[in-house]
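This section describes the prediction task in plain terms. A model, or a person checking by hand, is given the sequence of a single protein chain and must write out its three-dimensional structure as a string of tokens. No templates, partner chains or ligands are provided. The sample shown here is typical of the held-out split.
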Amino acid sequence: MSGIHQFLPMLAKGDGVGNNARAMAKRLAELGIPSRFYADLDKAGEASGGHLDYAKAAEPGDILLYHVATSSPMTTYLARRSEPLGVVYQNITPPEYFAPYDARAAAVQKRAQGEVETLAERALLAMTPSAYNAEDLHAAGYREVAEFPIIFDPADFLGPSSPRVAEVLAGLRTKGFANWLFVGRLVPNKAQERLIMALHAHREAYGDTAVLHLVGRPSYPGYVAALHGLAEDLGVGGRVNFVMGVSEEELAAFYRGSDLFVSASEHEGFCMPIVEALFHGLPVMAYDAGAVPETLGIGGVHLSDRDPAKMAGWAELLASDPELRSRLRRLGREQLTRVAPTATIPAFDRAIGRLIELAGSPLAPNFEARSSIVTETREILERLSEQDEEEPA
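The expected answer:
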């Protein structure tokens, strides 16, 4: 039976690209469209050549959907296939961010940019989570682009949290420390050094009253070493908590036990951690770069620059002003409705319908089928709003 089959460099639990692909597959199944996964890297990051398995299962009427995330041999393979092709583009971080730390990584990113351009002529439609990304696609020559935020299942955010991490964060609060949180890979474009500088400025202005938790996998040893060195040089080494890899339960505890979410990232194609922070009711302040203005919207504080003293001032206000925290929580919930599945699933349906139309495919999706993710999202957002009303300002 023909379907819309998804190709992606790696399908790993907890990975943003993989989570998006799984949510798409769930909705496609509800529409009556089969969707198999073909991944080229296993969970350990080892090459597996999974895309080559597709030829054995290909059916007339198939449509292929490629999730662009990094350089991959899938690009050449899909460029040579005859099936109609759609592209899902989450963004390729420019190579210049990596060049000072890892020349090979910079070369991979450069190659990935070229691969995005390679598929422009082949792709009937590109899907992307932000207008910022859409500019890349139009510049690369894509003819038609559909924009809608990354699809996520809010039920994923409601799981149990780690009692150990919760106890540590609560203990810090008891001692008078505010817990600052950033979630994302330790990579140069996310500019964690700016957060360390802001923490130092906060200490100079307000005393030793904050801890910065940097939660994310390290990718480049040179950059991680530079972050550690900076923290030590500024005298805040003991107040920067490098958490290099967490379980789902530990991540949930960090979101639930922190006082604010901070970001100084220079390049984001969407920034899913901002959505996660809004979901957990955290005040958010983020540098207005890349797709961050779109994702954060009315839900938080937009920083026009990354002056450490200004960032420190905002962080102090967000951690200590109950009225401001309450107001931002309400605005954050409102922003969630704009990026949640209640908005993204209908947009995804329209994009899939357009892709099928452009492909001239015999697939006949049932767009009247109810989305389980949308139903769950409405219920969850209603409960969160009720909880917010019950909580004191």
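For orientation: Residues 23 and 50 are 20 Å apart (CA to CA).
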